[in-house]
Amino acid sequence: MIKTRLPILLLASALTLPAAAQTNGDSEIVVTGRSLKETADDLAACLARNCPPDEDIAASLAHAENQLLQGDYKDSRTTLLKSIGRNRKHGDKFPVEVSDLFRANSRVAEHVGEAKNFQLSVLDMRNTLKAGLGEKDPRVMVAQIEVGDSRAKLGFPDEAERIYQDVEKQALANGQNRVAMFARVRQALLAQTRAEASNLDSDRKDARKLLDDIISNPLPGAEEFAMAAQVMRARNDRKKGDASSTEAILREFAERGGTTRPVLLFSEPIKRIDLSQDFGNEQPPANTLQRLTALNSVGKWADVGFWINADGRVSDVEVLRAEGTKQWLKPVFDQIKTRVYAPLRRSDNDASPGFYMIERYTLTARWTDDATGTNMRRREATPRIERLDITPHNYQRPVVESGATG
Fold this sequence. Notes:
Layout: E1 4-7, E2 28-31, H1 36-48, H2 53-69, H3 73-87, H4 95-111, H5 115-133, H6 138-153, H7 157-173, H8 177-198, H9 201-216, H10 224-239, H11 244-255, E3 264-266, H12 286-295, E4 300-308, E5 314-323, H13 330-337, E6 340-341, E7 355-364, E8 367-368, E9 378-379, E10 384-389
Antiparallel strand pairs: 1-2, 3-6, 4-5, 4-7, 7-10, 8-9
């Protein structure tokens, strides 16, 4: 089995920050590698003895995550929704625990294409923390940034920008520099995404100005966000064919002695699946073919492993487990191979085994009720790829026991 630390990611995949930019309030959930029967029995025993809400939530999360790792997406979501039904009323006493339940449900909803449930779960997560901790608590403001992330991912960047600006203003008023810088970097990421989409000089200049300001004027106590901005600026330079800024960042990390954990410095986004390259001319028209493919996409997932070598380069990308065909994984492999991580810290004997990473990828398509001009629910025509980090605690290659195979 895989023993992992499974982060419930705060950030939309298109807007992911380097590890150095994560906040102390990020939640993570530990998957112990126990069997489905064990976690199911634990949850059943907890409910049978009428256990306290926080214990119920912990058992529910452990079992739901175990179900997710085994590819039982529907059952995972059912476990979470039932726990939400039992425990949402306890948010006043256990705001963090209940909010973690909503957060986990939002991530699973993303992977099964339930965009509306994803959106509402993020809002419920924020509202639970706000009611229990007060609106000035930094965890509440980080949760509000998550709301902005969800709006960006669902295609409403203007709303996301407004949310980030409001959080920055409130954080500055409360003297919470890290939260303010986090929100400021989000605005720069949004500007960078807009510039890449429009390819306009004016948008590129606006994004560059935001990044330059973050690098030159980091707030006290939040200086690491300047490095996040440097990484973002280096990505722009690489797109123009200039790798010098990326090399400078690599040298800086090397001079510091390297890192003891993976720090992603550069990667390309995952490209949309181009179905026209996968099928011949005898196939149905593209729109029909895309829709048929999307309708069959739920349930296709894969655990992809790869090494990060001492120089920060990726090697030995492989599929560890998969459900369904693997043809859709080509853009995933292509994206992983573009990544550049910070150099690793050498051990006493001047040898570094590297980091072994494992990521879960899901091929899905969002449900919509306006795809045909009727109120009938159906999936969007274009498939999506969602990602979840399930890297082992010790960054070593795990032994993967029985499970789905391609």
